[in-house]
Structure formats: structure tokens, C-alpha cells
Amino acid sequence: MNAARERTRALIGRQLGLELGERAGDAYRDASGELLDGEWLGAFAQPSVILNKVTPVSLRIDGAAGRSIDEYGEAQLDVSVEPTRERIEIRKEYGRIGGEFMYVGRMHEGTLAGYWYSAVRPQFAGVFWMARADRLAPEVAERLRRRVRRNSPKRSLLRAAMISTLIVGAVGVRLVPLLGFVALALAGVFLLVLKHRSEALQREVELWRRQL
Fold it and tell me: Could you tell me where the beta strands, DSSP code E, fall in the chain?
């Protein structure tokens, strides 16, 4: 388990440009005596070309429920903890349009890390790393809070770029063949790069799945 957690921590820390790590101490319970209650800060890695490779996220957990904020908006959380605490599952629902995602991980010394996947399209997956806010160095916690966003301009840009490319490709093939073929070729390159990055991240996901 240490290998998967450290690989995920290093991957996300490298992309964020932060030295991630929790402070030593009683990492399993806060002052209220609950396992997960409180504020969590971290990020999740996602397959991307235009989108951010890593997205900072803030969670607030209260018992079996909670909410999160990241660049895709606010989401409601349903938290499930195995009696042995070896496996923690969080269902993350952005709403009717935003979709539903499952986070599966394990807590160790104040860190909650593991993998996530789309409930609708499980092959769309990635990894995540989070720590209790009070377990992080104050300067790291503050930098993470400042980087949490409620919207994703890059997501809107990606959608617009893909729609424009497909329209130009479809129309151009008939009216300006060279332009149409260039547009379709760019779309093909985009999909190939995305496939390569998805496969690389999928290897990290599989490492977690084998251990969880």
C-alpha cells in the first residue's frame, strides 16, 4: 500500500508544484472522535490534454455525508467506511448534468488516497490524494485552499474546440478538402494523446485496485 500511496502523492505533488505530506501525530481521529469528520484538502489526477492534469479539491465531511468543491463545481458526498476501515468509498455527485463519480481509497496517517472512476463510464478514471487540513503544514494547506476553483474555463474551452474542429472537419471536407482533412487530423492527434495519457494513468489506477 505504501508504494501506491507514495506514487500518487509524488505524481500529484509534482503537478501541483507542492511538497505534500502530513504532520506526525494521531492521524485517525480529530477532537470530536470521528474518523473522517472535518476539512480535507488535496487533488485528483485526470486524463487530460487541454484540461488540468491535476485538480485541487476541498472536502468537508460530516459523518456519512459531506460536500466538495473543485473546478467542476460543488458536489454532494456519500461516505461509506468498512468496519475494518481498510476501504473507504465516497460517492461524489455533482448533480443531474455534472455526473457521478466513485472514490475508493484507504486512510493512513492522516492521508486519504486511492483511485476514482466515473459511474457512467468506469474506464474514465484517475487517482487522488487528500489530507486532513489540520494534518498539513499551514502554508501547504493555505496554498491548496487558494487553488481550489468552482468552475473550469478549460473545460468550456475544450468543448468549444472539439465542437469547432468537428464542424470545420465535416464542412471542410466538402467545401475546402485540405482544411477539412487538417481539422480531422488535429482531432485524431488529440484523441491519440488523450488515449496515451489515459493509459498511463490507468496503470496507476490498477495498482490501487489490486491493493484495495
Answer: 38-45, 54-62, 65-70, 73-81, 88-95, 99-108, 111-118, 125-132
